[in-house]
């Protein structure tokens, strides 16, 4: 009997090994196909809408006034991946305006600008022996789309209401060669010891106000004699990004952090850009997004609500001085928004 049992066991063992080997080969084949599918270009984008309105006819005392707000977020990405290289590109626009009804005879009418940020990002990387380390070059550019007047309205309220910002005035560009560490598909850590940061103001009259971080020319006594149209910085840059999905892909989290220290001027004052996006899927392609952003640049001035009335009343004069109950100065800008967003992968 044993004579028959041993050959049968040997056949079963060989078949088991062949089956396991076939399973391993199939798994390798699936992983190879998945890797091939992820190669090449991957493109997509999203459009978010922020709209709110409130109207009154014969409002009761204490009811307030009319309000209409319109804005949104548009994003587009085009990412390329090959065996040893990647090239990620993205462009985004955050734009929001509002129109308030009159609550006094002297109040101005028209649309006011709430938010206007146009950003372009690009990073190219080449693999250094493993899938985790890349030598890379990173480009970041930021400007705005629409004209901004000193009154913050989209059109001048009087003859003295001058333009204080517009497309390419200013524009901030950073170029940084460095190392990109990708421990997994969700996390990226980039560092450059020699990043170049430039600010350029394309309009002479806007540059003369000296409010966008452009350099100044000073006299012997330290007084400002002229404003240049540009700013140049050389420093250290660190970038971290994280994205992942949770709860059966119904919650998406995207976080980015950018730190820049200028070796040439007060390196202890680190520029910060910290962005967060939480996206809750309602159904395929449509989501509710919560955006949060913190921005600080030691060379860029922001408006400050000195009298704490919730209204930023700062008028920037042609010589760079300001008038009004509030003022401009160094500080951080916080931005938050809720959006209904439609996304599509091309």
Order of helices and strands: HEEEEEEEEEHEEEEEEEEEEE
Residues in β-strands, percent = over 45%
Quote the average pLDDT. 83
The CATH class name reads Mainly Beta
Cα shape: flat
* Number of DSSP strand runs: 20
Distance between the termini: 66 Å
Uncertain stretches: 1-23, 25-37
Largest sheet, strands/sense/barrel: 12 strands, antiparallel, barrel
Please state the structural category.
Answer: mainly beta
Biggest sheet: strand arrangement: 1-2-3-4-5-8-9-12-13-14-15-20
The CATH topology name reads: Outer membrane phospholipase (ompla), Chain C
The residue fraction in helices comes out at 10-25%
- Please give the CATH architecture: Beta Barrel
Total of domains: 1
Please count the helical segments: 2
Radius of gyration: 27 Å
């Amino acid at each position: 009997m044993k004579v028959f049992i041993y050959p049968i066991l040997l056949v079963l063992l060989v078949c088991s090994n062949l089956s396991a080997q076939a399973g391993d080969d199939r798994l390798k084949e699936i992983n190879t196909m998945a890797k091939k599918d992820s190669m090449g270009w991957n493109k997509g984008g999203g459009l978010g809408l922020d709209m709110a309105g409130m109207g009154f006819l014969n409002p009761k005392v204490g009811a307030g006034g009319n309000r209409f707000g319109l804005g949104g977020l548009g994003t587009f990405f085009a990412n390329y991946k090959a065996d040893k290289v990647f090239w990620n590109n993205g462009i985004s626009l955050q734009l929001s305006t509002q129109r308030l009804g009159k609550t006094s005879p002297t109040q101005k009418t028209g649309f006011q600008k709430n938010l206007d940020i146009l950003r372009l990002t690009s990073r190219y990387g080449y693999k250094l022996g493993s899938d985790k380390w890349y030598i890379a070059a990173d480009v970041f550019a930021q400007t705005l789309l629409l004209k901004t007047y000193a009154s913050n309205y989209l059109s001048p309220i009087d003859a003295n209401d001058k333009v204080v910002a517009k497309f390419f005035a200013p524009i901030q560009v950073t170029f940084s060669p460095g190392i990109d560490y990708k421990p997994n598909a969700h996390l990226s850590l980039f560092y450059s010891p020699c990043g170049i940061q430039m600010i350029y103001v394309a309009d002479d009259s806007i540059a003369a106000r000296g409010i966008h971080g452009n350099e100044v020319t000073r006299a012997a006594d330290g007084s400002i004699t002229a404003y240049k149209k540009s700013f140049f910085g050389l420093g250290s840059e660190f970038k971290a990004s994280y994205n992942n999905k949770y709860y059966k892909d119904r919650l998406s989290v995207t976080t980015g952090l950018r730190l820049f220290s200028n070796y040439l001027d007060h390196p202890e004052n680190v520029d910060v850009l910290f962005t967060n996006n939480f996206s809750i899927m309602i159904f395929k392609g449509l989501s509710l997004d919560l955006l949060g952003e913190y921005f600080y640049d030691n060379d860029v001035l922001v408006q400050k609500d000195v009298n704490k009335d919730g209204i930023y009343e700062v008028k920037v004069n042609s010589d760079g001085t300001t008038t009004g109950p509030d003022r401009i100065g160094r500080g951080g800008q916080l931005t938050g928004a809720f959006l209904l967003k439609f996304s599509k992968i091309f």
